[in-house]
Amino acid sequence: MLVGMKNNHFIYLTLIVILGLLLRLWNIDKPEGMWNDEYLTWSIANLKFPQDFFKGVASNCHAPLHYFYLKAWMAIFKDSDVSLRFSSLIPGVISIFTMYICAKEYLVKKHGELCALAAAFLTSVSAFLIYFSQEVRIYSLTFLIASLVLYYSLKVFNNPSNKNCWLLTLFSVLLVFEHTIGFVFVLFNSCAIIAFMQRKKKENNLVNNIVAGFILCLPLVPFLYGLFAHPKYFSQWWAPFSWSKLLFYFTDLFSPVLKNISNAPPSFLEQIFSNASVNIGFIIFALVPSFMCLALAIKAFQNGRRVNWYLFTVFVATFLTVLIAALFGKLIFLTKYLIELYPLLILLVAVGWSTMQLRPLRICLATIFAVITLFYIIVSYTSPVRLVRMEGQQLPITILADLSVKKNDRVLYLYYPPSRFEKYVKENKLFFYANSIDKYNFPYVIYPFESDTYEAYKHGKRLYHDIFLLKYNKKMSDFLTNNYYSKMKKGDRMFIVELKTVSFFNEERLENIVLDDKSYQRIPFLYLVTSYAKNYSIKTSSQELDYKGHYDSGSWRVHLFERV
User: Best label site of 101, 217, 269, 289, fewest CB within 10 Å?
Assistant: First the structure.
């Protein structure tokens, strides 16, 4: 694939890859540990093979391939946090090269080398990809596979040989098994290729291979049907849809400012105008590079090639499908859920830039983009390499270790079950009793009647309205007494571990929200139920035990009580 590359172009590509590697290595060892989604990915991959492993994979909402990949990785490289993060870093670095060959395949003649280097550079310095190259999640590998799907799609456009068609089928199937909603992209990608290829180039093996690919994906159909037709929980119980997410999607992809990683701010406009003043930083570092890239992507369509209509159709169809699903509450509209489209967009930006006729303007735009992006990544405390996983699950365990938690002490976790912390508990050699009022068991602890988690997620606002106003909740009091107060002797301590980012309403504020129907309907159920669990647990524990204060680290707060 490097045959015919000029020496200086090979040097440029090597430097771009080295730059991307260094940016992904920088601060890869996160002292806060893995946050919940990372931890859950590791815990499933860490299950005993085969029975427990397959059961864990089937019970999760994500496609299975990444768990097999991570399990194989752990078998070779063990499961330290740094090693686990390298499982994402390696695909992230390889993606720089795959985007290079994608762009070179698109422009095989004039501007091809320049376009390829531009695509590689955009991939190398992408804040979004740097972030996920340091996270123990599916998205770095998903991007790599998606870029290979794009590459072989372009190869099929240029030469629908049996080899190219089969490789396109292979990577399409891998993408479906890697990312739960990857099937949406693969479906539209396959249909668009058939629709827009020149008829004289079409061969029966293309259609046959696509059909074969869908047959290979059939084992995943029951999983996908169960996930979308009978969801175990409703994603938007914690993050309602807002139209601002659409704008944050593009700033996430084309600027170094990341806002829609887990849940975007409610208003895009407030990021520009805040407290009657203009946010110059957001304009320079988010809007300027994003507008530049979008303009270049649009410019790429000026040559009128059929392949552009293919790319346009795939993007619009996939984007709108995910958007409609988000509007109906089937998933959250997050940038990472549309990561399959990112290789396509990078390609279009590279094409738009490399085909500019005015060389001085081309150099000027490239310089502005490079300076803005690299300056922010290197200097800003919110750059992708410095973004702290504030919910990192090692943070509360470090607090407990610093407080010298003892065997007879008791810990109550709020929001996550104890299993989410076991890796770091063992690493710190801590021994204590732990229970939880978490996002899976809260109906059995808080709600006084027969209920389950599915009903609570779906109808929580209606079912829990009056519960949130209770000053005395017998079920919760019995839970706390039976598991904590009645078992504690003089000198024993109780720790309540609170996740501040989901339980920020105090008792008075929560009551006001519940009594105001407009506010009650607007605020996600998650924040209401976790705030209630926190307020009641701390209030009741303060009545039964002596409160010694609290300790903060990141998004975590650990409350300390003692039996006197």
Answer: 269
Give the sign of the dihedral formed by CA 227, CA 231, CA 233, CA 239: positive
> What's the farthest any 2 CA atoms get from each other in the chain?
86
- How do 493-499 and 410-415 pair as beta strands? parallel
Tally of CB atoms within 10 A around 100: 30
CB-facing half-sphere around the CA of 190: CA atoms within 13 A: 25
Find out whether 548 and 393 touch, Cβ atoms under 8 Å: no
- Counting every residue, how long is the chain? 564
The structure tokens 């240029």 sit at 158
Using alpha carbons, list the distances in angstroms from residue 6 to 99, 354, 366. 18, 17, 21
CA distance 157 to 142: 22
Sequence-separated (6 or more) residues with CB below 8 Å from residue 551: 399, 402, 403, 557, 558, 560
Structure tokens at 19: 């730059």
Q: Which of 112, 180, 121, 189 is nearest to 153 (CA)?
A: 189
What is the separation, in whole angstroms, between the first and last Cα of the chain?
Answer: 73
Look up the pTM and report it.
0.93
User: Please, which residues bridge with residue 558 across strands?
Assistant: 497, 551
Rounded Cα–Cα distance for residues 423 and 34 (Å): 10
Contacts of 542 (CB under 8 A, 6+ apart): 561
**What's the rounded Cα separation, in Å, for the pair 19 and 532?**
48
- Give pLDDT tens digits along the chain (564 positions): 555 566 788 899 999 999 999 999 999 999 999 999 999 999 999 999 988 999 988 888 888 999 999 999 999 999 999 999 999 999 999 999 999 999 999 986 767 889 999 999 999 999 999 999 999 999 999 999 999 999 999 999 888 888 999 999 999 999 999 998 899 999 999 999 988 887 656 566 777 888 888 888 888 888 777 777 666 655 556 677 888 999 999 999 999 999 998 778 888 988 898 777 889 999 999 999 999 999 999 999 887 788 999 999 999 999 999 999 888 877 888 999 999 999 999 999 999 999 998 999 999 999 999 999 999 999 999 999 998 889 999 999 999 999 999 999 999 999 999 999 999 999 999 999 999 999 989 999 999 988 888 888 888 899 999 999 999 999 999 999 999 999 999 999 999 999 999 999 999 999 999 999 999 998 989 999 999 999 999 999 999 999 999 999 999 999 999 999
**Cβ 418 vs Cβ 434: under 8 Å:** yes
- Residues 397 and 386: their CA atoms lie apart, in Å, by 22
Amino acid at 27: N
Check if the beta carbon of residue 437 is closer than 8 Å to that of residue 497: no
Q: Give, in order, the Cα–Cα distances in Å from 359 to each of 114, 369, 370, 439.
A: 12, 15, 16, 56
Distance set, CA 452 to CA 60, 419, 441 (Å): 18, 20, 8
